[in-house]
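Q: Could you fold this chain for me?
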Amino acid sequence: MATRVCELFGHRRIAAGLLVNLLSSICIVFINKWIYVQYGFPNMTLTLVHFVVTWLGLYLCQKMDIFAPKSLQPSKIFLLALSFCGFVAFTNLSLQNNTIGTYQLAKAMTTPVIIVIQTVYYKKTFSTKIKLTLIPISVGVVLNSYYDVKFNFLGMLFAVLGVLVTSLYQVWVGAKQHELQVNSMQLLYYQAPMSSAFLLLIIPFFEPLTGEGGIFGPWSVSAVVMVLFSGVIAFLVNLSIYWIIGNTSPVTYNMFGHFKFCITLLGGYMLFEDPLSLNQGLGILCTMFGILSYTHFKLSEQEEGKSKLMSRP
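A: Sure. Below is the predicted structure, expressed as structure tokens.
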């Protein structure tokens, strides 16, 4: 009886964690888009708010013994913190200047770019099956972008820069976690304040500090509340991702990610009335097929690797 109660409680905890991640991941896209459309809030300043709130949240987490901070040399994570700024800022600029559909599909190009970076610079090898899945992903993104009636060069430039910097950041995060022997929360705890400091230095050169559109401008109470709320949601996204990976499996996380991808796309077309042509729909389906195929082959290869290790004498 006690075992069944524990299992039921465990399932409920996992369901609650998945629900928090689902709601926060979808909400952060829609809330940020709403802030840009309705209030015209400056992008880098919003990114800075997210970094500060994330660090404050992590500070509370370590005080509650959710994780133990590890002392790191600033020089070891300097480039990582800088790329973190670019990754979030360019991604937000892509969201600000593109439809949600184009923004979401552009992010899917992160996987092909990471594979190219790891192949060229880290001499990592990938199977032919994995490489072939990059074709439908890339074709789908090109199809959607080409037939997007709201297509604009600036938005696509930010999307491309976002993909490049995000790919570098993800490769470096994996390398730094291995090199410094830290988990994602320990790393984020130190890189968030450093990234905040970088943004504080460069914001005055790109965004006004006072007056209309400035961080100290005449913002309404509702705008300030929405910005702070988006910061809390951004923190919940980071925290729930870490929790899901630690308490479920890569399969659960990846499959759940595909579900969020579809919900976010549908929400963008419904809430912001983004136009969707037949060719864009085909592009989305093509990209989804590539993503699902990549996940299937990748997880199959990981399982094969585990089986071989276990079968060794």
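A (continued): Residues 304 and 310 are 10 Å apart (CA to CA).
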